[in-house]
Amino acid sequence: MIREHFSIHKVFDMEKWEKLQDSLAAATKLAILTVDYKGIPVTSHSGCQSFCHKVRQDSELLPFCQKCDSRGGLEAARSNAPYIYLCHYNIVDIAVPIIIDDKYIGAVMAGQVRLSDPASASELEQILSSKNQKLYSAKWEELKDHYADLPTMTLKEIQTVSNMLSLLCNYIVEEAMNKNLVVEMFDKASAAHDVPRLSDIVPGYSLKNIENLKKEMSNVLAHAYVNATREEEVSCRNPVLKPAFDYIFTHKNEAISLQTLADLCHISPSYFSKLFAKETGENFSNYIARLKIKWAKQLLEETQIPVSEISTELGFNEPGYFIKTFKKYEGTTPAVYRRYYKD
Predict the structure, then answer these.
(1) Which InterPro entries does the UniProt record give (predicted)?
(2) Are 325 and 318 in contact (CB under 8 A)?
(3) Minimal CA–CA distance to 110: which of 58, 64, 174, 52?
(4) What does the pLDDT read at residue 228?
(5) What span, in angstroms and rounded, lies between the C-alpha atoms of 283 and 287?
(6) What is the pLDDT of residue 214?
(7) pLDDT of amino acid 1
């Protein structure tokens, strides 16, 4: 099957992944790097801290970093779960394995942070230590000021971020597998001059499964790219409406209906409309449209995602309607807005 020939370059669209990786690094304050199964980088280093940048530029110290990357990835692969550890300089790093059919093909490495609660370091393994203390002492004078600038996080915060990265990687892998399974299905159908059912070729899969995966992936991407402030949600004074605001901000990729939100709040649509207008100063449809256009502007400014895909990521029924709505609020089309913003 096609899945037998997967490599990390086939699973990840590297151009898109690097942009997402940059956004994740900015949002989490972690440095992020993707490596293949040998520990060799396949992306640039997103958000690399000055300390680690200097260490990795040093030909005598770089091999230790690469060994940590390789060993961390393998340890994560063994447990099939994120692996949090201390590198050769006692800095916290995370390895999130990328595994297909029990085959380890690479890892997303994150970290370059110090623990804000040093006592919790005892819970982590130092994955590699050098016996050449003379070398480390000689380098320390140049590195110590950069070490002090490393961001700090609690172990619990690091564990939360590692689980998020693991979930994201799993979505990407599942999406890539299912796209390739669909290609395989049509290749077989073409050879047979017939169109068989997907379930006959790939037991356990259905078009509904694939659509659900696409929907979930869209939501992950929307969250990763859109640095939405939650000012509207925070300022919600009516506790009855809190579930509705939570849903709006966590389902950016959906075409949310008034009925759905009214049901979440356990009130009638008409009463929901009345409370919502009182809370926000505008009706439901205008509020949602304005918010989505605000998010669309961020995507246009910060990424190269095509307009048609932005339309999908933000839950518009079709690109033409998205363009029309964008022009209504911004006075220009998304393509023109992006061109002038970039210039």
Answers:
(1) Homeodomain-like_sf, HTH_AraC, HTH_AraC-typ_CS, PocR_dom, Tscrpt_reg_AraC-type_HTH
(2) no
(3) 52
(4) 43
(5) 6
(6) 53
(7) 37
What whole-number distance in Å separates Cα of residue 109 and Cα of residue 111? 7
Residue ranges of the chain with per-residue pLDDT less than 50: 1-4, 185-186, 188-189, 192-199, 201-207, 228-234
CATH number 1.10.10.60 is the correct assignment for the domain at 231-342: yes
**pLDDT tens digits, residue range 226-268?**
654 444 444 678 889 999 998 998 888 888 999 999 999 999 9
Would the CA dihedral through 222, 224, 227, 231 be positive or negative?
A: positive
What span, in angstroms and rounded, lies between the C-alpha atoms of 67 and 299? Answer: 36
Q: Where, residue-wise, is CATH 3.30.450 in the chain?
A: 2-169
The pLDDT value recorded for residue 272 is 95
pLDDT at 3: 40
Contact 172, 96 (CB under 8 A): no
- Strand ranges (E), 9-164: 31-36, 83-86, 92-100, 103-115, 125-126, 152-153
Structure tokens at 158: 């690091």
pLDDT score at 138: 85
Q: What is the CATH number of domain 2-169?
A: 3.30.450
* Sequence-ordered list of residues with C-beta below 8 angstroms from that of 18, at least 6 positions apart, any chain: 43, 44, 46
Tokens at 111, concatenated:
């970290």
**Where does CATH 1.10.10.60 sit in the chain?**
231-342
Predicted structure pTM score = 0.51
On the 0-12 / 13-18 / 19+ scale of CB atoms within 10 A, 134 is exposed
> What letters, b where the CB count within 10 A reaches 16 and e where it falls short, cover 65-86?
bebbbbbbbbbbbeeeebbbbb
Distance CA 38, CA 219 (A): 31
* Whole-number Å distance between alpha carbons of 139 and 17: 34
